[in-house]
Predict the structure.
Amino acid sequence: LVTLNTLLDAFARSGKMDKAAEILASIQNHATLHPDRITYSTMIKGFCLQGQVDKAVKVMGSMHKHGLHPDPIIYNTILDGCVGNDKFALCDELFARMQKENVKPSNFTLTVMIKRFGREGNLNKAAECANSFPETYGFKINVHALTCLISACLANKQQIGRASCRER
């Protein structure tokens, strides 16, 4: 499995997702091998890098058939892929599913959601995420999330007032 995962990663990094999909299918159909979280996360990352977010979501869905559940890294990878391809509705749907499945968001999730709302031009919602996520999900906001919020403001040529964003 380690050898096949390494080969799968090489194909995914080089953009040959058709070959990577063949390897995944061979692992899934093998009598004694079973795909693991690394197998799935590699496929998901590869599809997201190629802009094939819908295929990444399908791969994530197939994890359940093999007794695995998506972790924060897998969700964050797909959420980031959604934002990078302006699939905001899918991003929102997956974030809701992440919460429903009790997968804990992180600073990376926050950064992705700030980027999502910033790209849409909804700075109030981006600031709301920056204000609520740390308390809701139990982490301290980091410099990456704050930089992303500043970048969203600059990209939209707007500033966020004190009422929207508490001092940090």
Observations:
- Residues 162-168 have pLDDT under 50 and may be disordered.
- The radius of gyration is 18 Å.
